[in-house]
Design goal:
This protein is of the alpha/beta class and about 325 residues long. The protein has 13 helices and 13 strands. Helices cover about 35% and strands about 15% of the residues. About 40% of the residues are buried.
Length: about 325
């Protein structure tokens, strides 16, 4: 039995299927076999659960949304995938995580390699991303330059920035590097949709006159594949769009230490921990989409494999009402 100090976490649909155990809100009245705590990411619910677990010498798990989550945003739809980490959490580069362990210690056989390659093709064919609500039509793509470099902003205060060994200055350096390293190529700066809507703050309130002459600011909720398939390169601090850029075969430059950096697959501004070494893209994708997350089929409520979720999201997102922007 698992216990959590977050009512929101305890109410996640199909949580018992994800965890393989019931999760109750509150603290255990007595310590028995197979008792543990669970919290969300690095939020307060996790910190309190971890503190209690350490005092009682029981395990504590950290949960987060998977990298292939749902059609709609997290506030509107339950997750179809969760990551469950018994070591750390994937976006905390300052400490080991189960994902980092899987990437470093997975050795793929021929069948596993083929499975990863099939999943990568299906990801592209299904035009998938973490969220898949901003499809199937977005006229903004008609206004994109014929060729461009994609620079990805994030919301100010995003936990993955701080735990990814970055800060606000990392975003300024990222944009400056993109401009310097691609002097003859337009830059498309993708703001987070909540920043453009005024709900949250980003990292690019203003641009200099020189920057503005070469940077096209894109704030509307354009589906990631429309950008990634056309971009010549992707610049990211810790955004998942960097990982998705790798799935699309794009050169990726990082200015923090996200889970996909430091493995010899990206050009990194920061030096990675010795825990990370060179691996193949297939190894990274296998760990991130097969080994690390758990998936639930919304039609049956039972655990399933990533291929089932790819198929469901590819169909469901393609039938969403077109967005005119």
């Amino acid at each position: 039995m698992l216990y959590t100090l977050s009512r929101t976490l305890a109410a996640i649909p199909h949580l018992a299927q994800f965890l393989g155990s019931q999760a109750r809100f509150g603290l255990p009245l007595k310590l028995e076999r197979d008792i543990g705590m669970v919290g969300w990411g690095r939020k307060r619910s996790y910190r309190w659960a971890k503190r209690f677990a350490d005092l009682r010498c029981i395990p504590c798990l950290s949960l987060e949304d998977g990298f292939l989550r749902s059609v709609g945003l997290g506030s509107k739809e339950p997750p179809l995938s969760l990551v469950i980490d018994d070591i750390g959490i994937y976006y905390d580069a300052t400490k080991p995580s189960r994902l980092e362990y899987l990437i470093a210690n997975t050795h793929l056989d021929a069948a596993q390699l083929q499975r990863v390659r099939d999943i990568t093709v299906a990801w592209r064919d299904g035009r998938l991303s973490k969220y898949n609500h901003a499809r199937p039509f977005q006229p903004e793509q008609d206004f994109l330059p014929a060729r461009f470099v994609l620079v990805v902003d994030q919301t100010f205060g995003d936990a993955s920035i701080r735990y990814g060994m970055a800060d606000a200055s990392s975003f300024r350096r990222m944009l400056e590097a993109a401009l310097d390293e691609h002097p003859d190529t337009p830059i498309v700066l993708k703001l987070h949709p909540e920043v453009f809507a005024g709900h949250k703050k980003g990292h690019f309130d203003t641009l200099t006159q020189g920057q503005a002459s070469r940077v096209q600011v894109l704030g509307r909720d354009l589906h990631a594949p429309y950008l990634l398939e056309r971009a010549e390169a992707v610049y990211s601090v810790t955004s998942q769009m960097g990982f998705e850029g790798l799935l699309w075969g794009k050169p990726v430059r990082t200015f923090g230490m996200p889970f996909y950096a430091g493995w010899g697959l990206t050009q990194d501004e920061l030096k990675a921990s010795d825990r990370r070494r060179g691996v193949s893209l297939e190894t990274l994708v296998h760990a991130a989409l097969i080994g690390y997350p758990r998936y639930v089929d919304p039609e049956t409520g039972q655990r399933c494999e990533v291929e089932r979720v790819i198929a469901l999201l590819g169909v469901e997102s393609a039938t969403q009402t077109p967005t005119s922007g």
